[in-house]
Amino acid sequence: MDRDSKKRIYKAHIIYTKEKNRFEVLENAYVAVDADGRVAGVSSEPALLDDGNTEVVDFGDCLLIPAMNDLHVHASQYRNQGVAMDLELLPWLQNYTFPEEMKYADMDYAERMYRRFVHDLWRVGTMRSCVFATIHTESTRVLMHLFREAGMGALVGKVGMNSNCPEGLSESVEKMMQGYEALIEEFNKPDALVRPIVTPRFIPSCTPEMLRACGELAAKYQLPVQSHLSENKDEIALVQSLEPGSSCYGDAYNHYGLFGQTPTVMAHCVFTEGEELALMKRNGVMVAHCPTSNLNVTTGIAPIRQFFEEGLRVGLGSDISGGHDLSIFRVMVYAIQMSKLHYQRNRERRFLALSEAFWMATKSAGSFFGRVGSFEPGYEFDALVINDSDLNHDNYSLLERLERYIYLGDDRQIEKRFCRGMEISEP
Amino acid sequence: MDRDSKKRIYKAHIIYTKEKNRFEVLENAYVAVDADGRVAGVSSEPALLDDGNTEVVDFGDCLLIPAMNDLHVHASQYRNQGVAMDLELLPWLQNYTFPEEMKYADMDYAERMYRRFVHDLWRVGTMRSCVFATIHTESTRVLMHLFREAGMGALVGKVGMNSNCPEGLSESVEKMMQGYEALIEEFNKPDALVRPIVTPRFIPSCTPEMLRACGELAAKYQLPVQSHLSENKDEIALVQSLEPGSSCYGDAYNHYGLFGQTPTVMAHCVFTEGEELALMKRNGVMVAHCPTSNLNVTTGIAPIRQFFEEGLRVGLGSDISGGHDLSIFRVMVYAIQMSKLHYQRNRERRFLALSEAFWMATKSAGSFFGRVGSFEPGYEFDALVINDSDLNHDNYSLLERLERYIYLGDDRQIEKRFCRGMEISEP
Fold first, then answer.
1. pLDDT at position A411, please?
2. Which of A43, B64, B205, B341 keeps 20 to 30 A from A324, CA to CA?
C-alpha cells in the first residue's frame, strides 16, 4: 500500500454533492488527485488541472462518485446479518447478539469473521466506517490491523460495558482502560486511517464509573466517541431511571463528557426532540441514521427532515445486524422511503430528495472522518468507479443513471474503489 | 422446451410453506416430479417416491424452494425502473409513465425492452407473473411470445384505457375488443402457461363503456381480471365522483363484472376496509400487496395482518416501476418491515413472520395461477435451487440460511429455475 508520490488525473462522469440540495454533475470531466491523496481540482478541461505531463486515467463511460461512509456498524454482529429478524430488541440481544459477541474472545473466530466483514465493506464500496467491535482488546486489535492492511479508513471501538449484560461481556473499568491504552498506543497516530473511538455500548450497559472513565479517555487522548441514543421508548425510560439527574438521554452522556466534548456520533435518535435535539446541535453531535435497523427492530423512524431544519449533522449507518444490508446505497433508499412515511403524515415536511440522501452518505457522514466525502479541493480522494453498463440500456441522463444505480445496483457495478487517493484492491 | 416424458427426482434441502404459519423443512430430502411437471411427492427417503429406476439429480447442499410469483408488474414501465423516485403519483404518471408507455407502439422498442424484462424476471427467480403491458395489441403479443419462448408462466394484460389519459394511450372500446379477441384466439388455450388477463387500467382511465366491455370479455372467455384498487385517497374520491352509484371503489368494478366474477387480483388495497374488504372476501378477490411501490409513491401501507384476519387472499407484487426492485425476495423483506410499522401503532396485530411473507410470495400468490407455489402432491413444480455457499459460512440452520438468502441474497445464488417441471434456461 505504498504511495508512489505521483499526481494522478482521472476522467469519468463525475457526480458529487457540495451541498445537500443539488448534485454537481460533470460529464466527461477530470479530477486531479495530488500525491498526498487529496483532490487538487475537478474540471471539464484537463489543462486547467495540470501542465500536461500527468497521464490521464480514463474510466470511459463510468460514473465517478465519492465512496460510501458507514457511521454505525457492529463488526461483531456480522455473522448474524439477516438472521432472527422476526425478533424484537430484547430477545434478539439475549439470544443472538450477546452470545455472538462472546465468541470474540476466540481469536481464530474473530479473525475469520472480521476478515469477511472488512471484505464485505470493501465489496459494497464503504471506505470509511465507525465500527463497534466487542469488549475484547485483542480481537479489536485484529480488526484494526485488517482495516489497516486493506487501506480502508475506520474508527474502531472496543466496547465498554459492565452492567446489565452477561458475565462474558462485562469488563472492569480498569481492564477497559488498560485495553484502550494499548490500542491507543498502537493506533492513535495523527492522520492515521484507522484509529480508536471511545465506545460505551449505551448508558444501560455501563456503570457511572465506566461512563466517567470513557469520558476521561476521550478527553485525555482527544478521541472521538460513538454510542446509541434514543432508539426506543423503553430504553429512554430506563436511562431516565438510571440517570435521574439528567434532563434527557443525551444529557446523561453529556454529564460524562461523551456528548460532543470530542467529535461524537450517536446512532438512531429516533425519539430525539426538544432539549436533546438542542443539546446535540449546541455540541455538534452527529446523528447516525439507521433506517433499515429501525424498521427491522420495530423502533420507529427518525425525523431527518426536522433534524435538517434544526441544523443537525446527519449521516447514515447500516447498523449490521439490526440492519440487514451493509450497502449504504441501499440504506439511502430506505432513508428516502422512511422520510416519505413522515411526509404522508405531515405534508409540510418534504421527503428527502436523492441528493440529500447521497449527501448524508458522502459529504455529511464523511465530515466525521476529516475532509472526506466530496471532490472539492483539499478533500481526501475517496471514490468509487461505477460501471453501470449492464443497467444502462436506454439513454438515461447521468443523474438517472446514478439514481438507477442507487436503487437497482449492487457491488457488481463497482469497478474500482479509492480511499485517500489509493486504489483499494480486494482485501 | 419439449417435455421428455420422464419422471425426475431431485435431492436438496427442501423448504416450502403448506400453511402460512410455519415452514416445512426437509434436510437432504427428495422431491419427485412426474412427467407432466407436477409434484408426485416429497420425502426423506427416495424409496418412498420411486421404484428405484429413476435417476436422482443431487443438488448437494443447496436449498430447493418454490419459485417466486409476482402478482403485479408493469412490463411497459421496465425502462423507468429506479428512475424519478423523487416524484409523486401525478407528475410521475404525466412525465414518465405515460410517455414511456406510448413508446410501445414501436415494435422494435417493445421487443428490445420486453426481452430484457423477461430476462430480468428469470434472473430474479420469478416464474409466474401478472403483467400489465400497454394498449398496443401487437407489442403485447410480442411480450406473450417472449414469455412462451422462455417457458415462464404469465397472465399478460393488454391495457384498456380511453379516459383521462393522453391521446396516444387511448383506444376505442371497439379496437380494444378486437385486440383482445386476437390475443384470445392465439393464446387462450386450456392449461397454457401464458394467457391473456383482462386489464382495465383503473376506473378513472376507463369510460363506463370500456369497463362494461372488459367485464363482458372476462365473462365470455372466462378470463381472469387485474387492475388497481384503493391506492390513494385522491384516487378513491375521484372514483366516488365518477361512479356515484357504487358503495366503494371495489363496488365500482363489481358493477361491471370485474371484481371476482372471474378470478381477480387487485393491486395495492392500501385503504381497503369495511364494505370493500367484505366484498373482496365474498367475491374471493385477491390482493397484490406492493409495499415497495406504496413507499416510493408515498401512498401508505396496506394492513396485511388485518387482511389475513379477515381471510382475504394476499400475494406480493413488485409493481415496477412504482416499485424499484423486481425481486420478490426483496418485496418480502419490505412486506415484513412495513407490517412492523403497523405493529408499532397497534401491538395487538403482530407483524408478519418470515413464513407468512414467504407463503404470500409462493403458495398464496401461486394460487392465482393454478396449483402453484408449494411442493404438495399435484402442485406444478415451480422451483428455485439456491446455492448460498457464499452466504453460508457459519453453521446456520436451514431456516437461517433461507432467511439470510431472503434478506441478503440476490440472483447470483439462484443456480437453477424450474417452471411447471421444466428447467428454464436463460432467455
1. 98
2. B64
- CA–CA distance, A35 with A381 (Å, rounded to integer): 11
Question: Residue A82: which of B82, B393, B404 has the nearest Cβ?
Answer: B404
B295 contacts in chain A (CB < 8 Å): 337, 340-341
Single-letter amino acid code for the residue at A87: L
Answer whether A340 touches B (CB < 8 Å): yes
DSSP state string for A269-313: -TT--HHHHHHHHHHTPEEEE-HHHHHHTT-----HHHHHHHT-E
pLDDT of residue B4: 57
Res B188: pLDDT: 96
Residues B210 and B278 in one domain: yes
Give the nearest chain A residue to B320 (CA atoms): A408
A82 and A142 inside one domain: yes
Do A390 and A32 touch, CB atoms closer than 8 A?
no
Of A83, A301, A340, the CB nearest to B404: A83
Residue with cell 436523492: A354
Q: What pLDDT, on the 0 to 100 scale, is given for residue B49?
A: 82
Is the domain of B202 the same as that of B290?
yes
Q: Which of A373, A235, A249, A226 is nearest to A298 (CA)?
A: A235
Please judge whether A340 and B296 are an interchain contact, meaning their C-beta atoms are less than 8 angstroms apart: yes
What's the confidence (pLDDT) of residue A91?
A: 87
Partner-chain contact B407 A86, CB within 8 Å = no
Distance, first Cα to last Cα, chain B = 12
Whether B233 and B210 share a structural domain? yes
At A187 the pLDDT is: 98
A10: which 3 cell numbers?
A: 482521472
Whether the CB of B356 is below 8 Å from some CB of chain A: the reply is no
Q: How many structural domains are present in chain B?
A: 2
Q: Is the domain of B89 the same as that of B130? A: yes
Domain span at residue A30 reads: 8-67+373-423
Q: Sort A309 into a burial class: Cβ within 10 Å, 0-12 / 13-18 / 19+.
A: exposed
In this prediction, the residues of chain A whose per-residue pLDDT falls under 50 are 1-2
- pLDDT of A345 reads 87
Q: Enumerate residues 85 to 104 of chain B having a beta carbon within 8 A of any beta carbon in chain A.
A: 85-86
Please report the pLDDT score of residue A48 as a whole number. 81
Report if residue B3 sits inside a domain: no
At residue B61 the predicted structure's pLDDT band, cuts being 50, 70 and 90, is: very high
Residue A132 bridge partners (DSSP): A74, A157
* Chain B residue with Cα closest to A297: B340
Shared domain for A187 and A319, answered yes or no, is yes
* CATH for B176: 3.20.20.140
Are B37 and B177 contained in the same domain? no
Q: How far is it, in rounded angstroms, from Cα A313 to Cα A320?
A: 21
Using a CB–CB cutoff of 8 Å, tell me whether B79 touches chain A: yes
pLDDT band at B376 (very low <50, low <70, confident <90, very high): very high
Check pLDDT > 60 for residue B327. Answer: yes
Asked if this assembly's ipTM is beyond 0.90, the reply is yes
Give A163: exposed, middle or buried? Use CB within 10 Å, 0-12, 13-18, 19+. middle
B5 band by pLDDT with thresholds 50, 70 and 90: low
Q: How far apart are the CA of A8 and the nearest CA of chain B, in angstroms?
A: 33
- Tell me if A1 is assigned to some domain: no
Determine, yes or no, domain membership for B2. no
Of the pLDDT bands very low, low, confident and very high (cuts 50, 70, 90), residue B55 is confident
